[in-house]
Amino acid sequence: MKIAVLSLMTFFPLFAGAQALDSEIKQRQQVFSNIEILSEQAEELIDDKNTNWAKLEQVSREIKQQSFLLLDLFPQGSQQGSKAKQAVWNKPQKFSAQLKQMIIGFEQLNQASQERNMHLAGQGMESAQSTCRSCHRSYRSRW
């Protein structure tokens, strides 16, 4: 009986930890999906000749909020079952710097939408997307 209890006491924390990490992977995948959808919406709003500034401000605020979530969604140990390359955890400072650069672009987009500055909005969007592409090349596995 003692062995069974000890086995369960050992197994459940490991199981709970694995579930938490799996949850973080799913959460970060969802956040990336949200950012992609919102970025497409922002691009369409920016490209529209009659920009709906209120909608662009709402979308850019949501993108900014979603992007900040990513800073906490790559904890050590969450690489198992992830599409991210090991370099995310081996060189976390470089990866974090790229995430922060993406956030800066989305912050610029948000600021531009509040100021109704089309040129700045385009720059912010391009900066964020350029960082996304660079990060995917460096840190995302193809399989």
From TrEMBL:
GO terms for biological process: electron transport chain. Residues 1-18 form the signal peptide. The keyword Repressor does not apply. PROSITE patterns: CYTCII. It holds the Pfam family Cytochrom_C_2. Keywords: Signal. It comes from the Bacteria. The keyword Transmembrane helix does not apply. GO terms for molecular function: electron transfer activity; heme binding; iron ion binding. This is Cytochrome C. It comes from Photobacterium kishitanii.
